[in-house]
Amino acid sequence: MDLPDPDAPTMANVSPAVTENVTSCKIVSEPVVSATVFPNDSTARMDVDMRERMTNSRRRQWLAALGITLATAVMTAVPAHAQSGNKPALLVLGDSLSAEYGIARGTGWVSLLQDRLSKERFDYSVVNASISGETTIGGKTRLPDLLKRHRPAVVIVELGANDALRGFPLQTTEANLRTIVSDAQQAGATVLLVGMRIPPNYGQDYTERFFALYSKLAKEKRAALVPFLLDNVISRPEWFQSDRIHPTSAAQPTLLDNVWSQLKPLLKKAA
């Protein structure tokens, strides 16, 4: 079996509306000031007054610093979608097909999705947690932290193609996707599973069972399903990059249309 090279790893792209800044906080201990005993009462009183003024000054400085630290901590702790006007988050967990691999930033279907949401008056903030080269095991590993940080209302799962490119057992891919869908649902998110096909040179049995596992899982977990992300794209060779795997910018609106038809019924418009 001649397996094509897997995707080159790149960093995930996160929507600017939900980018998080982490500010480190540390507790600073004040040094202990030793008291000096004077034999003269008046001198002692002057020393006490002076130390009280110094203590009050230090206390005010410390409280001011504490206030700044606490304010910074509170701002940092705000969930990402709360920072963008309390919009519910829509999390995309995908691979290079969702990570704008080989095309200009801002032209991928996930970036276009944010524009579509605004145009259709759906008040969601898109979090693109897709990474080129990602497999189902990688997505399963990263998901718990993403759910904790973003608390998404909807999770779009676009994974599995790289498992096939690497020749992973179908049972492994299916089990990982099942865990991903279950974890997202248990966190209160609605899940949209995005199906994929692989080239026939992997063998008819493998390719058919790979394609079928998406509909099987969607039915089992009662998740929404995009049957095939590249529908209406695969027949247009001019819409693919030189590797004949990754769609060009011209194909991205069609990818979005394929997702949107199944995503829109899951969304709720702001009251």
Give descriptors for this structure.
alpha/beta; globular; 5-stranded parallel β-sheet; 44% helix; 271 residues; disordered N terminus; 8 helices; Rossmann fold
Description of the structure:
This protein folds into two domains: 22-77, no CATH class; 80-266, SGNH hydrolase (Rossmann fold, 3-Layer(aba) Sandwich), CATH 3.40.50. The chain contains eight helices and five strands. By secondary structure, the chain is α/β, with parallel strands linked by helices. Strand 4, helix 7 and strand 5 (224-226) form a beta-alpha-beta unit. The radius of gyration is 27 Å and the shape is globular. It has a five-stranded parallel beta sheet, with helices on both faces.
| Gyration radius, in Å | 27 Å
User: Helix proportion of residues, in percent?
Assistant: 40-55%
Number of domain units: 2
Rounded to the nearest angstrom, the distance between the terminal CA atoms is: 54 Å
Strand percentage, roughly?
5-15%
Describe the global form.
globular
Assigned CATH superfamily of the largest domain: SGNH hydrolase
Derived from helix and strand composition plus strand pairing, the structural class reads alpha/beta
Assembly state (oligomeric): single chain
Uncertain runs with pLDDT below 50, 5 residues or more?
A: 1-57, 59-83
Number of strands: 5
Strand order of the largest sheet: 2-1-3-4-5
Order of helices and strands: HHEHEHEHHEHEH
Average pLDDT: 78
Number of helices: 8
CATH class of the largest domain: Alpha Beta
For the biggest sheet, the summary is: 5 strands, parallel
Per CATH, what is the topology of the largest domain?
Answer: Rossmann fold
